[in-house]
Amino acid sequence: MHAIQDHYPAEFAHCYGCGSANPHGLHLKSFIEGERTHARFTPAAMYSGGYPGNVYGGLLASLLDCHGTATAAAFAYRAQGRALGDGGAPIRFVTGSLKVDYKRPTPLGIELLIEGTLRSLEGRKAVIDLTLSADGEVCVTGEMLAVQFVAKA
Ligand SMILES: CCCCC/C=C\C/C=C\C/C=C\C/C=C\CCCC(=O)SCCNC(=O)CCNC(=O)[C@H](O)C(C)(C)COP(=O)(O)OP(=O)(O)OC[C@H]1O[C@@H](n2cnc3c(N)ncnc32)[C@H](O)[C@@H]1OP(=O)(O)O
């Protein structure tokens, strides 16, 4: 199954969080299934936060950042009745704002589940609700305003 990011054009594949062409990036892969999106990521020891055994909060925000914009793009395609990677003009979103709430420490070394749902899609603005869980427990929640990117002439 192709990830949402697999459909980003090559010129947008350099994102640190999810670009397949960035050798130093996280290579996050997000999928849409029904009314939610999901991605999985297992942080290595180098992503340690301030206290041992737990994940650095900036990394967690990065995971929500990329998953949120991918979620916005996937739901915008769906709203227009289009398939991802249909060869038409790409629909791409950037992060306008991202609120992150750290509910409990996130353990290092186990697979994290990042999920997204669409709260609203109006014009160029998509509001996405995000969660990041470890072992079935929600550690981080997020709320993103993603804005559809329009190239300026
Ligand atoms: C950042 C662009 C760099 C070039 C990127 C090129 C292409 C990108 C295309 C595709 C990306 C592909 C893959 C993405 C992969 C990974 C992405 C990871 C996520 C990121 O890492 S992404 C980087 C961080 N991200 C930024 O670097 C954004 C910098 N920023 C801007 O580029 C502008 O700021 C922009 C475009 C956001 C809006 O600018 P704009 O001029 O196009 O439109 P405008 O200001 O009119 O906003 C329209 C409506 O959104 C409301 N609105 C806007 N911002 C708001 C906020 N913060 N809070 C509340 N409401 C807000 C307004 O109030 C208005 O609402 P209304 O229509 O109701 O009045």
List the helices and strands and how they pair.
Elements: E1 30-33, E2 36-41, H1 57-79, E3 93-102, E4 112-122, E5 125-134, E6 137-148
Antiparallel strand pairs: 1-2, 2-4, 3-6, 4-5, 5-6
The chain binds ligand 3IX.
**String of helices and strands:** EEHEEEE
| Number of structural domains | 1
Cα-based radius of gyration, to the nearest Å? 15 Å
CATH topology: Thiol Ester Dehydrase, Chain A
Global outline: globular
Overall SS class: alpha+beta
Q: What is the CATH class designation?
A: Alpha Beta
Q: Any idea what the CATH architecture is?
A: Roll
Mean pLDDT: 95
Number of strands: 6
Task: Measure the end-to-end span.
Answer: 35 Å
The percentage of residues in β strands lies in 25-35%
Most strands sheet:
6 strands, antiparallel
Say which molecules are bound, naming each kind only once.
ligand 3IX
Strand order of the largest sheet: 1-2-4-5-6-3
Could you state the CATH homologous superfamily?
Answer: Hotdog Thioesterase
- Poorly predicted sequence stretches spanning 5 or more consecutive residues: none
Give a short summary of the structure.
This protein is α+β, with helices and mostly antiparallel strands.
Plain-language structure description:
Helices cover about 15% and strands about 35% of the residues. With about 150 residues, the protein is of the alpha+beta class. It has one domain: Thiol Ester Dehydrase, Chain A (Roll), CATH 3.10.129. It is globular. The longest helix has 23 residues, at about 55-80. Ligand 3IX binds near residues 18, 65, 95, 125 and 149.
